[in-house]
Amino acid sequence: MTETQPARPAALAAASADVDPSAGIGLGTRIWHLAQVREGARVGADCIIGRGAYIGPGVVLGDACKVQNHALVYEPAVLADGVFIGPAAVLTNDEFPRAVTPDGRLKGQDDWHAVGVTIGRGASIGARAVCIAPVTVGAWALVAAGAVVAKDVPAHALMVGVPARRVGWVGRAGRPLVREGGEWVCPASGERYIERDGALTPAH
């Protein structure tokens, strides 16, 4: 006999959450009080959408993502599997923000072009950090709390400050890597990495 995997529970949304009927919500996902998931958004399985979080129209979240309380994820952001968005973090979508046109008319949807933030697998965006679109944050990168990301972030990078700058590397466990000889080593998992030309790759 072979063991069967337990069935995932259905998605669960708090009564006070606002989930558009056209949004796709994966099995096992939980959406907490006062969160809003807009039309056409796709949220993967086993995600957590925190209290007061906002997921814009057409935004895509992979499986097992966590969007913490009051985080704002504006369209057309794309988040891969296992992404963490910290409390009150913001993923913007307007390169040249203005409320009105040069002639003073309130801007409408046709008056600007939305650009999105792309977050790679397993990456984390800290509390109150801001990612200014269009930027890409590489897989397993870690953006510290309060940082402002205005340029693309390489995979495994540890980013801090305003504007954000790389101050080190992190492994898949989220811990800063330690230099040992010509390699970088994760103190939690023992995984080893090699740095070449400003990029980090697993050592084999």
Summarize this structure briefly.
With 204 residues, this protein is mainly beta.
Task: Explain what this protein looks like in three dimensions.
With 204 residues, this protein is mainly beta. It has one domain (12-171): 3 Solenoid (UDP N-Acetylglucosamine Acyltransferase, domain 1). It is built from no helices and 26 strands. The chain has strands spanning 12-13, 18-19, 24-25, 30-31, 36-37, 42-43, 48-49, 54-55, 60-61, 66-67, 72-73, 78-79, 84-85, 90-91, 118-119, 124-125, 130-131, 136-137, 142-143, 148-149, 157-160, 165-169, 178-180, 183-185, 192-196, 199-202. A 9-stranded mixed sheet has the order 1-4-7-10-13-16-19-21-22, with no helix packed on it. A hairpin with a 2-residue loop joins strand 25 and strand 26. The radius of gyration is 19 Å and the shape is flat. The model has no long low-confidence stretch (mean pLDDT 94).
Kindly list the characteristics that best describe this protein.
204 residues, mainly beta, UDP N-Acetylglucosamine Acyltransferase, domain 1, 9-stranded mixed β-sheet, 26 strands
